[in-house]
Amino acid sequence: MAATLGASGHDVVHVRDVGLAAATDPEILEFADAQGRIIISGDTDFGELLALGDVRGPSLVLLRRQQGRRAAEVAALILANLDVIADDLDAGAVVVFDDERLRIRRLPLR
Predict the structure, then answer these.
(1) 3-state SS assignment for residue 8
(2) In 3D, which of 67, 63, 57 has the Cα closest to residue 106?
């Protein structure tokens, strides 16, 4: 997915490419926040940590129920909706893609 998003002109890194493949979720959140990056993941723990931390960033794109889709299909889904979610992601938000809908919640979540 990172390659597809990167090929579309977006500045994308994968955790393994920055030495964070074995990092904890809080370490990844800290990295993303410090770098001004958006996390794209299927791991719901990131949303929970953002809620508990009562923080304004980093933004999270949470992919729910996407098991049947290939990475390129998920990347295409994100790209197709980028105009709708860009302002929220810039401001700090959790954006959830599931099988049927798109949900956006601004940070902080409390």
Answers:
(1) coil
(2) 57
Give backbone dihedrals phi and psi of 27, rounded to 5 degrees, phi first.
-65, -40
| Model-wide pTM > 0.85 | yes
Residue 56 tokens, joined? 């304004």
C-alpha span between 80 and 88 (Å, rounded):
15
The DSSP code for 36 is T
The string of pLDDT tens digits covering residues 56-100 is 999 999 999 877 788 889 999 999 999 999 999 999 999 999 988
List, in order, residues 6 or more apart from 52 with CB less than 8 Å away: none
Cα(65)–Cα(99) distance, integer angstroms: 6
Provide the 3-class DSSP secondary structure of residue 15.
Answer: helix
CA distance 100 to 66: 11
Cα distance between residue 32 and residue 43, in whole Å: 15
Distant-in-sequence, close-in-space partners of 109: CB < 8 Å, separation ≥ 6: 47, 50, 51, 54, 94
